């Protein structure tokens, strides 16, 4: 199989899937990166924040854009001012602080934010062959590692995986919003 052609076809299939989800009215997730704390003008402390980098749709283990970019999802959170009881585990406090930071960064209340996702190198054949994330280039084409611990013999063909995710997206809803994946 021609690796360049397989990667080009994969990008086109992912872009088409994202476009179909958009056409169905499924709201995209917001992509963002962490901006570390810094000093403005050299002495005014600025807290850590988030910067919006785009939008994407979940296809199971992959986050895709209408441009055909693919990401390994990072931290997933919902921007909300949820008030919880006073005694919480440290991890719950960290999650609450992340949700508040998303609001402070300008994300609307209730928006799903995917923070610090890793772009998958669909333009780099050697990197895709060495990839251990959700998309892998093999001699048989682009395959999906649908579960992080799945062995190489459990990789699924991208076309089959995308079609299954699209089929599921039309039939499963949660809390009034359609869920994909």
Question: Can you put this structure into words, describing what you see?
Answer:
- The chain has 181 residues and is an alpha+beta fold.
- It has one domain.
- Helices cover 30% and strands 30% of the residues.
- It is built from four helices and 14 strands.
- It has helices at 3-23, 90-104, 125-130, 158-169, and strands spanning 29-35, 38-40, 44-46, 49-59, 62-64, 70-72, 75-78, 112-115, 118-119, 135-138, 141-144, 156-157, 173-174, 177-178.
- A seven-stranded mixed sheet has the order 7-8-1-4-5-6-9, with helices on both faces. The chain has a three-stranded antiparallel sheet with strand order 10-11-12.
- Strand 2 and strand 3 (44-46) form a beta hairpin.
- Helix 1 packs parallel to helix 4 (158-169).
- The two termini are 29 Å apart.
- Residues 171-181 have low confidence and may be disordered.
Largest sheet geometry:
7 strands, mixed
Beta-strand share of residues: 25-35%
Total strands: the figure is: 14
Q: Span between N and C termini? A: 29 Å
What level of helicity do the residues show?
Answer: 25-40%
Number of helices: 4
Order of SSEs, N→C? HEEEEEEEHEEHEEEHEE
Radius of gyration in whole Å, from Cα? 18 Å
């Amino acid at each position: 199989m021609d690796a360049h052609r397989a990667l080009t076809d994969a990008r086109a299939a992912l872009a088409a899937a994202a476009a179909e989800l958009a056409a169905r009215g499924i709201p995209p997730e917001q992509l963002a990166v962490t901006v570390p704390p810094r000093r403005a003008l050299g002495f005014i402390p600025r807290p850590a924040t988030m910067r919006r980098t785009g939008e994407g749709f979940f296809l199971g283990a992959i986050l895709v854009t209408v441009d055909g970019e693919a990401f390994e999802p990072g931290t997933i959170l919902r921007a909300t001012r949820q008030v919880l009881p006073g005694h919480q585990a440290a991890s719950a406090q960290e999650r609450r602080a992340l949700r508040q930071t998303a609001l402070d960064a300008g994300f609307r209340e209730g928006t799903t934010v995917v923070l610090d996702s890793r772009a998958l190198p669909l333009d780099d054949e050697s990197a895709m062959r060495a990839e251990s994330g959700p998309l892998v280039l093999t001699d048989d084409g682009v395959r999906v590692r649908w579960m992080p611990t799945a062995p190489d013999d459990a990789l699924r063909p991208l076309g089959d995986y995308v079609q299954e995710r699209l089929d599921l997206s039309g039939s499963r809803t949660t809390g009034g919003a359609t869920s994909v994946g």
